[in-house]
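Milestone 3.1: sequence recovery, worked example.
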C-alpha cells in the first residue's frame, strides 16, 4: 500500500489541480500526518514547490502552523530565485553558442521548465544537462571557459560557475561514464537526434527532443536512478497534459521503433498506481501494463510501498536486452566501473591503488545490500 505521505505528494503533483483534487488533498491532510516530515519528504522528492502551491490553492494553511507555511514558502521562492538564475546563465551560454552556429540539446528539467512548468517555482532544478552528440565539445568547452566556468577535476564533463553547474553529455544516457549503457538503446542515439526540432528559448535557438522521445529518455533516466525521486515521474506525467488519441498512437509507435517497450512499461506502471493515472486502453495493451511478470511487479511495488526501489533493482530493470553475454557485461560494469569513475564516487581516494578502490567498492556494495 502506498504510504500516506506518498499519497499526499502524488495528489499535490498537479500542474493545475481541480476542485476534486483539492478536496482529495484536504481529506488526506486531515488524517494524522507529520507535516514536518512531509515537507522534508517533499524536498527529497523534488516536489516542495508543488506541495506549497497545492496546499495554498486548497486553503490548507489552517492545518499547517506558521513555521511550516514559512518553510514551504521559502522552498518555493528558493526554486524561483535559483531557476531564474539558471535560465539567465543558460541564455547567456546559448547566445555565445548561437553566434558560433553551435546547437545543443538540453535535457530534463531545464527544457521542461520552458515547455511544461509555466510556474517557475514548481520544478526544483539542480543543474543544466546538455547533450552534445556531434564534434562540438571542444568549442563548447572553450565557450564555457571564456564565460568563467571551470571544469570539476573529479568530473571532466562538469563545469561550474558559482552556483550554476553545466553537465555535458556525449551520450544521451551517460555512456561516457558507464559504457554498457549504450546497449540500452536498441537503435542507437542518432535516431533521437534526427527527430530534434529547433525551439525558441528566451529569444535564443536551441534543439529539443520531440515530446515522444522525451517520454522515452525521461523514463530511461528515471530507471537509471532507480526512480528514486518522484519529480522524475511527475515530469513524464506532466508531458501528457492535453494529449489526444493521435499522440498516444504516435508514442506507442515510437516506443516500439526504439525498442523500449519494457523500459517505458515499468515507468508507466509506477505512474498508473502512484498517481491513479489511467492510460488509454490501447497504451495499457501495447505495453502490457497489467501483464508484467511476478518479479517485475514485486520490484515496482516496492517503490509504491516504501518510496524507493531496492538498490539492486536497476541491474534488472535498467539492463540491455541483448542476450546473456551483454547483460552480464552491463551488470559487471555497473557494479565495478572504471577506476576513474570509482574515484568520483570516493572523494578521499586520490592516493588509492586500483585494487584498494575495488576493495572499497566491494565493501560499499555489501553495506548497500544490508541496508536494502
Amino acid at each position: 500500500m502506498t504510504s500516506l505521505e506518498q499519497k499526499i505528494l502524488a495528489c499535490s503533483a498537479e500542474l493545475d489541480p481541480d476542485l476534486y483534487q483539492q478536496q482529495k488533498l484536504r481529506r488526506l491532510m486531515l488524517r494524522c500526518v507529520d507535516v514536518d516530515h512531509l515537507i522534508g519528504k517533499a524536498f527529497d522528492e523534488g516536489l516542495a514547490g508543488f506541495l506549497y502551491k497545492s496546499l495554498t490553492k486548497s486553503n490548507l494553511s489552517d492545518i499547517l502552523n506558521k513555521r511550516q507555511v514559512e518553510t514551504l514558502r521559502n522552498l518555493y521562492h528558493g526554486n524561483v530565485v535559483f531557476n531564474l538564475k539558471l535560465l539567465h546563465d543558460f541564455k547567456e551560454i546559448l547566445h555565445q553558442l548561437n553566434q558560433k552556429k553551435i546547437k545543443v540539446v538540453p535535457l530534463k528539467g531545464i527544457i521542461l521548465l520552458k515547455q511544461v512548468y509555466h510556474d517557475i517555482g514548481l520544478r526544483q532544478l539542480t543543474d543544466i544537462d546538455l547533450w552534445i552528440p556531434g564534434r562540438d565539445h571542444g568549442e563548447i568547452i572553450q565557450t564555457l571557459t571564456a564565460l568563467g566556468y571551470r571544469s570539476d577535476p573529479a568530473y571532466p564533463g562538469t563545469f561550474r560557475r558559482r552556483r550554476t553547474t553545466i553537465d555535458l553529455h556525449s551520450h544521451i544516457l551517460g555512456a561516457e561514464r558507464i559504457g554498457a549503457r549504450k546497449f540500452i538503446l536498441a537503435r542507437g542515439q542518432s535516431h533521437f537526434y534526427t527527430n530534434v526540432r529547433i525551439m525558441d528559448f528566451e529569444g535564443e535557438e536551441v534543439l529539443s527532443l520531440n515530446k515522444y522521445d522525451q517520454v522515452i529518455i525521461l523514463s530511461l533516466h528515471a530507471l537509471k536512478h532507480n526512480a528514486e525521486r518522484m519529480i522524475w515521474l511527475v515530469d513524464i506525467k506532466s508531458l501528457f497534459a492535453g494529449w489526444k488519441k493521435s499522440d498516444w498512437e504516435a508514442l506507442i509507435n515510437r516506443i516500439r521503433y526504439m525498442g523500449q517497450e519494457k523500459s517505458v512499461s515499468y515507468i508507466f506502471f509506477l505512474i498508473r498506481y502512484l498517481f491513479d493515472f489511467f492510460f488509454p486502453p490501447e497504451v495499457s495493451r501495447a505495453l502490457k501494463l497489467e501483464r508484467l511478470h511476478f518479479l517485475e511487479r514485486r520490484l515496482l511495488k516496492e517503490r509504491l510501498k516504501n518510496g524507493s526501489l531496492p538498490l539492486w533493482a536497476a541491474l534488472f530493470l535498467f539492463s540491455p536486452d541483448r542476450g546473456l553475454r551483454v547483460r552480464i557485461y552491463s551488470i559487471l560494469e555497473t557494479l565495478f566501473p572504471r577506476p576513474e569513475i570509482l574515484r568520483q564516487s570516493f572523494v578521499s581516494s586520490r592516493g588509492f591503488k586500483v585494487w584498494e578502490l575495488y576493495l572499497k567498492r566491494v565493501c560499499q556494495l555489501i553495506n548497500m545490500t544490508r541496508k536494502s
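Strands lie at 105-107, 128-131, 150-152, 155-161, 164-169, 197-201, 204-208. Residues 336-371 form one domain.
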